[in-house]
Design a protein that fits this description.
Shape: globular
CATH superfamily of the largest domain: GAF domain
Mean pLDDT: 84
CATH topology of the largest domain: Beta-Lactamase
Largest sheet: 6 strands, antiparallel
Distance between the termini: 32 Å
Number of strands: 10
CATH architecture of the largest domain: 2-Layer Sandwich
Radius of gyration: 19 Å
Strand content: 15-25%
Low-confidence stretches: 131-145, 300-305
Order of helices and strands: HHEHEHEHEHHHEEHEHEHEEH
Helix content: 40-55%
């Protein structure tokens, strides 16, 4: 199993212990070492995250195909971008489980992939995940051409969101990156939310009556102290928020030094109120670091392209 979050690897180990015929022979936290260990151990099955240090999960899967061709691969990730998921399947992977569904879907997915059947999380039902040969090439090209898709694979994404949630003492959080082709925000990392919320806010435009959409339009931080009464929401949006136990929320835009809009980080709270001024200053500092990484990633691709 390959995931850079130790607590998640522990969860996977505990879940797999229910299948006595399965033995975990390796736990790794970064991509390049996963390729080396796959070559050495030749495992029957590899559980693989997308956002990993040194080498992202999709590239790990491609390289494993060469060094351990008999190994089956099951992606276990919170990334819900259809383009990323389609790209994951172009590696020959047998399944894709969304982490928030893993409590009920992990073992059925393991069974299916080991038996040679394809498995896709129920929360992804309705996504167009077909991967014809032409789509394999097309998906790769879209990853290269779109900085949003390219950086969505980076391990810094989940690390950044965890830091912002901790800094603001939040209960939930999302990180969205801007898809310039469609002029929408797309969730690339989240913590604490269930399917209804994630499906509803999977893509957001600046025309929608919600906090992140309004903050995108204004290009400035927006804070809602009480979801139940704030007029920013439509009735439908308010209902989704309240059923997710969100009572207050702040959304902070990610904007690069040239003024280009990159994305949005939002933290959500079960209580009414707002983060402290000091906490919001720390959010700004963390955001500046992430924006610098995104810009550096784009410059590196341009210099090698």
């Amino acid at each position: 199993m390959v995931d850079d979050y130790k607590a998640w690897r522990s969860f996977l180990s505990t879940a797999l212990q229910k299948r006595t015929e399965l033995q975990v022979i390796g736990q790794l936290s970064e991509g390049l070492e996963a390729v080396h260990q796959a070559q050495e151990l030749q495992p029957d099955l590899i559980l693989l995250d997308i956002g990993l240090p040194t080498l992202n999960g999709i590239e790990v899967a491609r390289q494993i195909r060469s060094v351990s061709p008999a190994s089956k691969i099951l992606f276990v990730s919170e990334n819900r971008s259809p383009d990323i998921i389609k790209e994951a399947f172009t590696t020959g992977a047998g399944g894709y489980v969304v982490k928030s569904d893993a409590a009920t879907e992990l073992l059925p997915a393991v069974n299916a992939v080991l038996e040679g059947r394809r498995f896709v999380s129920r929360s992804l039902v309705g996504y167009d995940l077909a991967t014809s040969p032409s789509e394999v090439l097309g998906a790769a090209q879209r990853i290269e051409d779109n900085p949003y898709l390219r950086f969505a694979l980076n391990a810094s994404i989940s690390e950044f969101l965890a830091s912002v949630i901790e800094t603001t003492a939040a209960d939930f959080g999302t990180l969205q990156l801007f898809d310039s082709a469609n002029h929408t925000l797309k969730i690339v990392a989240q913590h604490g939310f269930q399917n209804e919320f994630l499906d509803y806010f999977d893509t957001v435009s600046d025309l929608e009556k919600c906090v992140c959409g309004s903050a995108m339009k204004a290009r400035s931080r927006l804070i809602v102290l009480d979801v139940a009464t704030d007029p920013i929401f439509s009735d439908e949006t308010r209902g989704v928020m309240l059923r997710a136990n969100v009572r207050s929320v702040q959304s902070t835009p990610l904007i690069d030094p040239r003024g280009n809009f990159i994305g949005m980080v939002s933290t959500h709270y079960r209580r009414d109120g707002t983060p402290t001024t000091d906490a919001l200053c720390q959010v700004d500092n963390l955001t500046a670091i992430l924006v610098a990484k995104i810009c550096a990633s784009g410059e590196q691709v341009e210099s090698t392209g």
